[in-house]
Write a structure and sequence with these properties.
A: 321 residues, 12 helices, B: 258 residues, alpha/beta, Rossmann fold, four-stranded antiparallel sheet, 39% helix, globular
Chain lengths: 321, 258
């Protein structure tokens, strides 16, 4: 199957990464805290990949990615609560269902809002994000287990390296294949010129909805993994600023580059958490002075992001020839 | 058979009639030129045919079928392709991708096929790519295949736009001011290109143009518009002598075009 052939490089790299990380985790060289950061970075990559599909490839400026991340997180936590699931294997269908649920919400909300463009779409998605946040704050009135403003407690810790890394790799491959098929091509056509796309027979409404739905699916999966990593959810984890995090990663990595999102996700999480370790405790808040300066410098140095639109050879993209 | 019929088309924008009671028809394999001063409503006619605008009145028929106020994504699948006056290429995509995209619209595989890189996916992508390369070589753009479309010189962008339109395999090609911004030598080349593709692809063509030499040379018949109305129609030879046309272009005292 050409799928496996084109994926062999990436799979090889993933095995190496897996063995390295596994060794690091088992040997105790990586503290519990560091392990958590590494897993979190992978989760952030999945969510950012979703936004890259929506914004980087299709040009739909969304400020609501964290809302779909939150929907996936709460949905999966609720499902494991209801079905009292405690291990990875039975968790997989739950994770998938949470992704689908986020996708469904994204699909439905897409009908009214994807007609909007640019700043207007940004405002609409921002509004949706606030709506979700308020809903989660008051969710205990509807279902007590969701916890409302008290937070969702007692979620089993299921997310592990063995779960997150394979899921991340599979999703990167799926995303890669979709991006380098006609769908990804149409998405980029729409980003360049929506009117011309439609004049050449591309069903722009359907394609935009497809990109948005898939991006929300990825956010939902990321949310599900996140919920079962920290075993505690609070509505404030999914507010507007979280959406900005995803946005920064997409822009820093390069709009329309999968490799860029992976790098930027690692750099972003590594930097924020790394500074927490490096800086003396009294100066911790200076992170928020350093990070903006870094971003400004980066945008001057690489205005199109770390990777611009390029991809690493390891992704194994061989355009059918 | 009539390839295209416009019957009593009217389109106004807030009280100003951009196109007013316009009727004309185009036979299959005919080339019709639409000329007229700036703001005469020529491009609006294209937008009405392709469904970008919805006419206030009137009807558009394509091979006898009513396509008035059609969904803008549908003409491409029916066999109507167009180029744009202000070049609407997919600038950040490669030259090859610009031509491949319309070739892939007609399906061949679905999302699952894309994810699993099924046989259908491989065949469809390969066929589209081969066809796109053929079209590029026809327009002498093969050497540019991997460059971003937006980085091409202007004349080559015009040719790329034509090859992208032909990728749809159209029966009717609408060309909006192909000569805009080109020098006389480039226009001569363009004229040859359009003649050649017309023969090779058995096309029916409607062309909007300001460059008189280009449009007179190319067209079997001309429709002249002024202030949204058709003021004359006939062979290039007749139009050159038409008093109303001369007035519209040159004012009262003109004495002949070209």
């Amino acid at each position: 199957m050409s799928f496996l052939r084109s994926a062999r490089r990436l799979l090889l790299v993933s095995v190496v990464v897996y063995v390295l990380l596994k060794g690091l985790f088992l040997s105790g060289l990586a503290t519990e805290y560091l392990q958590q950061i590494i897993l979190y970075a992978l989760i952030v990559i999945i969510g950012s990949l979703g936004l890259n599909v929506i914004y980087g490839y299709t040009g739909q400026f969304s400020l609501g990615q964290a809302a779909f991340y939150g929907i996936g997180a709460y949905m999966s936590a609720y499902l494991t609560h209801v079905f009292s699931i405690g291990s990875a294997l039975p968790f997989l269908p739950v994770l998938f269902a949470s992704g689908l649920f986020s996708a469904l919400i994204g699909y439905l909300i897409g009908f009214p809002i994807l007609r909007l463009r640019d700043d207007f779409l940004a405002i609409a998605t921002l509004g949706f994000g606030i709506f979700v946040r308020v809903f989660l704050d008051n969710s205990d009135r509807l279902i007590d287990a969701l916890g409302g403003a008290r937070g969702f407690v007692g979620i089993p810790r299921i997310t592990s390296l063995d779960l997150v890394l394979p899921v991340t790799i599979v999703l990167i491959l799926v995303t890669r294949n979709v991006i380098f098929s006609k769908y990804g091509l149409f998405w980029q056509c729409i980003k360049d010129d929506e009117l011309a796309s439609s004049a050449f027979g591309i069903n722009t409404g359907r394609m935009k909805s497809m990109a948005f739905t898939y991006g929300c699916f990825l956010a939902g999966i990321a949310g599900g993994l996140y919920a079962h990593l920290y075993s505690f959810l609070h509505p404030s984890n999914f507010d507007f600023l979280k959406s900005i995090d995803f946005l920064i990663i997409v822009i820093v990595g390069g709009m329309g580059s999968i490799t860029g999102t992976i790098f930027a996700g690692l750099v972003w999480v590594g930097f924020i958490e790394g500074l927490r370790i490096v800086l003396p405790s009294g100066m911790l808040e200076y992170r928020w002075v350093l990070i903006p300066i870094l971003l400004i410098v980066l945008m001057f140095w690489r205005p199109n992001g770390l990777m611009a639109q390029k991809e690493s050879r390891f992704l194994g993209i061989d355009r059918v020839s | 058979m009539k390839a295209l019929e416009c019957i009593g088309l009217k389109k106004s924008f807030g009280g100003v009639a951009a196109v007013d009671d316009l009727s004309f028809s185009v036979d299959e394999h005919e080339t019709v030129g639409i000329i007229g001063p700036n703001g005469a409503g020529k491009t609006t006619v294209f937008n009405l045919i392709t469904g970008l605008y919805r006419p206030n009145r009137g009807q558009v028929r394509f091979f006898g079928r009513d396509i008035t106020a059609i969904d803008p994504a549908r003409p491409a699948t029916l066999g109507i392709a167009r180029t744009f006056q202000n070049l609407r290429l997919f600038g950040s995509l490669s030259v090859l991708e610009n031509v491949t995209a319309p070739l892939l619209v007609k399906g061949g595989y679905g999302p699952a096929g894309a994810v699993l890189q099924s046989r259908g996916y491989v065949t469809a992508e390969r066929k589209a790519r081969e066809r796109a390369l053929e079209l590029l070589s026809l327009f002498r753009l093969s050497h540019r295949a991997d460059m971003p479309a937006g980085s091409l010189p202007y004349g080559e962008q015009r040719r790329l736009e034509l090859s992208r339109a032909l990728a749809l395999g159209p029966r009717l090609l609408l060309i909006d001011e192909p000569g805009a911004g080109m020098n006389p030598r480039e226009i001569q080349g363009l004229l040859g290109d359009i003649r050649e593709i017309k023969k090779a692809f058995l096309l029916t063509i409607i062309v909007i143009e300001h460059q008189m030499r280009l449009v007179m040379n190319l067209s079997d018949r001309l429709v002249v518009m002024d202030f949204g109305r058709k003021i004359a129609e006939g062979s290039p030879h007749e139009i050159k002598r038409d008093r109303r046309v001369i007035q519209a272009y040159l004012g009262e005292e003109g004495d002949g075009l070209c």
